[in-house]
Amino acid sequence: MPFPKFRLEKTGAPMWFRGLIPVITLVLTFILTSGLIIWGKANPFEAYYYFLIDPLAGRVSFLEVLVKSTPLILTGIAVTVAFVAGYYNIGAEGQLYAGALAAAWLGTVLEGVSTPVAILVMVSGGFIAGMIWALIPALLRVYLNVDEVVTTLLTNSIILFIISAILNGPWRDPQSGWPQSPEIAEAARLPQLAERSRLHFGFVIALVAVAVIWFILTRTGFGLKLRAVGLGKEGARFAGIQVKRTMLLAALISGGLAGIAGYVEVAGIQYHLIGELSPGYGYTGIIIATMGGLNALAVAASGLFFGLVETGAQTVSRALGVPVYLGEITQATMLLVILGMFLLQRYRIRRV
Amino acid sequence: MHVVEMRQITKQFGDVIANDRVEFQLKRGEIHALLGENGAGKTTLMRILFGLYREDSGEVIVDDQPVRIGSPKDAIALGIGMVTQHFALVPPFSVAENVIMGYRDSLSMDMKAIEAEVASSAKKFTIEIDPSAIVRHLSVGQKQRVEILKALFREARVLILDEPTAVLVPQEVDALFDILRNLREQGISVIFISHKLNEVMAISDRVTVLRDGRAISTIDTSSTTPSELAKMMVGRETFGVTRQGEAVADQPILQVERLCADDGRGLQALKDISFVVNSGEILGIAGVGGNGQKELAETLCGTRQPTSGGILVRDKQMSGASPSEMTAAGLGRVPEDRHAGMVGELTVADNMVMEHLSRFTKRGMLDRKAIKNYTDQLIEQFQIKAKPSDRARTLSGGNMQKLLLARVLANQPDVLIAPQPTRGLDVGATEYVHNQLLEQRQRGAAVLLISEDLDEILALSDRIAVVYEGEIVGVLPVHDADIERLGLMMSGVIKENKDAVPQI
Hints:
The structure holds two protein chains of two kinds. Chain A is an all-alpha fold. Chain A has a domain at 70-308. Helices cover 72% and strands 3% of the residues of chain A. In chain A, helix 2 (44-57) crosses helix 3 (59-84) and helix 3 packs antiparallel against helix 10 (243-270). The longest helix of chain A is centred in the middle third of the chain and has 30 residues, at 115-144. Chain A starts with 5 loop residues before the first strand and ends with a strand. Chain B is of the alpha/beta class. Chain B folds into two domains: 2-234, P-loop containing nucleotide triphosphate hydrolases (Rossmann fold), CATH 3.40.50; 252-490, Rossmann fold, CATH 3.40.50.300. Chain B contains 17 helices and 22 strands. In chain B, helix 8 (226-234) crosses helix 17 and helix 14 packs parallel to helix 15. The longest helix of chain B has 17 residues, at 427-443. Chain A binds chain B through residues 219-225, 227-228, 231-232, 234-242, and chain B through 301-303, 322-324, 326-327, 333, 335, 339-346, 350-351, 354-355, 357-358, 360-361, 364-366.
């Protein structure tokens, strides 16, 4: 039979091709979305300029990119810790809200303390709250082998209802009647880092978290255990690593980091808790962690890139008067192309 | 004359010749046993007949016509059915649905009519089964009957059963044999793959013995004896490395007492296993695969919890201890499955230190320099062809095994557990491993060698214990061990020395 047969073979892409990946990604995304942009009566080239270049050109918009990336870097690094240990934490979103809840409460009781003390207390508070929210699914996974993907996902919905109940009940704003928590104290707010910008100290916290996690994963015995458990449970167990304990710790640290993301959003941006605090930072964190290949530094870079794209989506619609959805569609398309590229570059097609 | 004829079948996997010019003939209406040890090539030959593998050379003839069987679908069309050890059933479906699945695929199905049809087919073949029962609720034996019915419903005239009794309890075995005899009456030919001599003697009309990929002989069952078959199955020349001098059995280092453990499905895999390994001796555990060796190794390595019994290392009770506690007690553990015993995505150096991580960390931080030096030194000492920074999975099988041996032997363990240490290794690497084991014996370690390779057992062991269905059926010094007796013990024909603990 003359029909040629092909077979997928797993091999790493050659170095020169890896360098080309961003370029190909951009070109592909451009081709896929330009039709829509033209339909929206805008010039695709111009649109892409506003999408990817303009946000980096101005001081204000550049700082805004950093603001947008702050929670994303934190959830990205949170998911990374769990995934490295083979624990598929889909619950960063819920853990983020747990941290935010703790921060909203601590923020109202920490009247009159110094800023460093407030930061220390509230980082710990956010971390512990996220940890607590991650605890039950983690215990279920480790001791009863209940799939954590399902349980962490479900706990996300639970905390949203809890928060909704609190915001519509005891914390409802007495004056406006809005479902939002009381404003947190001045002292509890994260200091601003630049004038005429929303950039706050939470960005530094995010970078510190990245550095700490990078150090743990690459330089410590505990990090080696995490990686060993994630890459080969059986081999790790055979060598005497306590797989259950290690996995449990990874799940809790992951939850804690996501909790800090909730804290920085409350104490750096909103100054109160609202039900719409996160537009899915926890879920985007999964994509960020995957794109960063679970390498802490690359995850930070990928978090920054997502901050850029988020900012760009808004710039495009403002500058060209196209619907905001167009920016979101472009963003989503780019994501799919990137993930596709990351997956497909591991294979080559061979004729057999 | 013959329903199926296989001529000069050769099949090679990499360097391993699984079938070497095998001749096989099947008569109409006979039960034909395929007998041989693990890796003798029984299953490979039948997978070729069922279209799961393609032969490298040779010819398959069905009803005097040369045929090309490219897939199970071709085989089924020729009237050949196969029941493997792993059933291909859909648990939430009913028996009738499973039987017709993939065979009848019209859009509308009258389940009542189909169930009646399946029921009448079952009746014809005297297979007791309720067509409307849900498969999930059936016992293993019943599921196997569904598989057999599935094949017969597709008008199979040749039924291949791959170790059908391995999953059955004795009563179910009797029921299965009744079904097989009935099928024979109806002119259906059955190929019965087994390594259990008793069963082969009880059920088969003819036997073909395979050894090392070759068909040794085909004979009428009535004209042979279990011991003749055992000899054909295992008899061969010895080779290579051998141990030197007699061990002075003085000091018991590893004592296993009435050890029981379950397998992954919760069935008892080890039944009151007792033995002793002395300082400076190698105790070989011989047996056909799947008789509890895996569970024994895992229990001793701390990766499987025993249900009862004791494991004493230098008189210290270690039963139920964790892997790291086992290591700390001086027990060196080589994993049965090399790939599962290391983390392939991590580096050689990472894997090398993983058992003793605390020795290579300072206040939680990895001492990378110490790790590298340690690994470099072991790579040199054990002649491992790898760099410390290589991913472990990129190593060849032999080098992986050297890595795992190095990790363990660098700590001079008192006891060495070596399950299937040379499985899948080439001649050179095998010899290397053998020499390492002998060196440990020389050093005074107690070595437990669990192997399905009788040559290896005979060449290295001071004493041999034979395991059959989770029990030690006998322990003999190597100079008393003759192949025929070992073969009979491995096939469960003779059990002796029920209490295998020698005088301590």
